[in-house]
Write a structure and sequence with these properties.
heterodimer, A: alpha/beta, five-stranded mixed beta sheet, 32% helix, B: twelve-stranded antiparallel barrel, four-stranded antiparallel beta sheet
């Protein structure tokens, strides 16, 4: 029995020790967003969006700076064909996209690694009405500090006005309504 | 002195559980051994150690309307878990347990490979046994022999895992959900040898928390809560006695998990919520005294439309061993 008690105590100690690794045990609501230098290039709100050129799943190339000349703003949604991504994109298609016809929406696939596989996933998941950009080398996902569900809004000046998880879409709507 | 420290630690956990949230329920056997998959101590036993490994293979998902969707071609997504559990009898009708998982995520897509690991969310359980004597019988002679073993419990999930709100690089690092949860659990178990049946029902609520970081990037703070969660599991088993009086128990189970939509800043998040229905089969070897149990479980999510929503479909293979201190 003493062995059991020792093991139990060790488990408790392990949990306690690992608590240092996590903020979840005592979550913070403090605003810790970094202050950025206006005009600098980077992924944060207020910075200029890193330019890129990517092929979509129909082999058409899209360059961010070019797209910005014809749109009121750009939305990038980072997708890995998962349940949450599916839920986000379905919500965006039904509740956001129709209300902002002057904004270009792009889905960024950063996991499939090829245009043909990305197209297959796009069709299998039922999102052929979206333009899916294929980030084969994960250049864009890294440039924007993005991951599954990250949603980036870029205004017509190339400035990032939102870079965070899609969540329920309300912050995306707010960001799009604030576009100049 | 050592015993006092241990007692204080235990009591601290119990008090904490009264104010915080819980987790899962499990098919169990009050007799020990058998189909037990949970950290439920057999009646009159003093303590139990349980070590198990899970291999969870992801194979597609149900989307938000319940259609089954395959994973991208060329993907191989797996999670491996090492679960360490300990259960301890506090009094004749009371027992407590803790389960700590360690998680390895191994994900391979055609264009991306990721391998990460870390502690998962910890579960602490407290159960009350609403019966005085062992309810396993060999023959029904009176109506009393039909009375099942009933456990009433509470379970607290502590977010010791790595969540999206920790200092992580991307979604592949995640090993926990980041929320406390408190569950109430009802477990009814009846064995009339060689047959066994159990029903477990649980209902839990997460605790709202503040979020100021997502996948390592600080964002404008907001409050978030996940939806309430309900789960029901029914299992039915058959025990075969070997010549040595050791036993082999074969159990089939059906589970239905449901989680309501969550909230962000008090508003319903329509992209959240989930449903998962699965079946499982277990084969367990138990010694005559039920002090050692070795078991293998295969849990399968049914890959058909409308059998789940907003959740991955997976196969989970579990191999475990437990030792009961009588």
């Amino acid at each position: 029995m003493s062995f059991c008690k020792s093991l139990f105590s060790l488990l408790l100690l392990a949990v306690t020790a690992c608590a240092d690794m996590t903020d979840d045990l005592n979550p913070s609501g403090e605003d810790k967003r970094p202050v950025v230098e206006a005009g600098s290039i980077g992924p944060y709100v207020g910075q200029q969006a890193p330019d890129f050129t990517l092929s979509d799943t129909l082999y058409t190339f899209h360059t961010l700076s070019t797209e910005l000349t014809t749109a009121n703003g750009i939305v990038l949604y980072f997708n890995m064909w998962c349940p949450l991504c599916d839920s986000h994109m379905s919500h965006m298609r039904e509740n956001i996209v129709p209300d902002f016809p002057l904004v270009s929406f792009f889905v960024v696939d950063y996991v499939t690694g090829s245009v043909s596989l990305s197209r297959s996933s796009q069709v299998a998941n039922g999102f052929t009405d979206f333009t899916v950009l294929v980030d084969i080398d994960q250049y864009i996902v890294n440039s924007y500090n993005a991951t599954m569900g990250t949603t980036v809004v870029i205004d017509s000046n190339g400035s990032i006005t939102m870079n965070e998880d899609y969540k329920d879409g309300s912050r995306l709507r707010t960001a799009l309504e604030s576009l100049p | 002195m050592k015993y006092r420290i241990f007692t204080i630690l235990t009591m601290t956990l119990m008090v904490g559980m009264a104010f915080l949230p819980t987790q899962s329920a499990y098919a169990a056997s009050c007799c020990g051994g058998g189909s037990a998959t949970s950290l439920i101590l057999p009646k009159f036993s003093k303590a139990m150690i349980d070590v198990s490994t899970d291999i969870e293979k992801y194979d597609g998902f149900w989307n938000d309307v319940g259609d089954y969707v395959p994973d991208p071609a060329g993907s191989d997504l797996n999670q491996y878990r090492l679960n360490l559990g300990y259960a301890h009898r506090l009094a004749s009708h009371w027992q407590a347990s803790i389960n700590v998982p360690y998680v390895w995520n191994v994900n391979e897509y055609s264009g991306l490979t990721s391998r990460t690991n870390g502690l998962g969310d910890t579960t602490i359980n407290l159960f009350y046994e609403a019966f005085d004597t062992i309810k396993c019988v060999y023959k029904v002679n009176t109506v009393k022999d039909l009375v099942p073993a009933v456990y009433l419990g509470t379970s607290l999930t502590v977010p010791t895992g790595i969540s999206p709100y920790d200092n992580v690089e991307n979604s592949f690092d995640i090993t926990g959900r980041g929320f406390y949860r408190l569950d109430g659990v009802l477990l009814v178990d009846k064995t009339i040898y060689p047959w066994n049946a159990s029903l477990e029902l649980s209902y839990g609520a997460y605790f709202e928390r503040s979020v100021n970081r997502e996948y390592g990037n600080y964002v404008e703070p907001y409050d978030k809560n996940l939806g309430n969660r309900a789960q029901g599991t029914f299992s039915f088993g058959y025990t075969h006695f070997l010549d040595t009086m050791d036993t082999l128990t074969f159990t089939g189970a059906y589970a239905d998990l449901w989680e309501d939509e969550g909230e962000i800043d008090g508003n319903t998040d329509p992209t959240s919520g989930l449903r998962k229905r699965s079946v499982a089969g277990t084969i367990a070897f138990s010694t005559m005294n039920n002090d050692w149990v070795v078991k293998f479980t295969w849990n399968h999510a049914i890959q058909r439309d409308r059998w789940g929503a907003n959740f991955p479909t997976t196969d989970i293979y579990t191999i475990g061993v437990r030792h009961v201190f009588l």
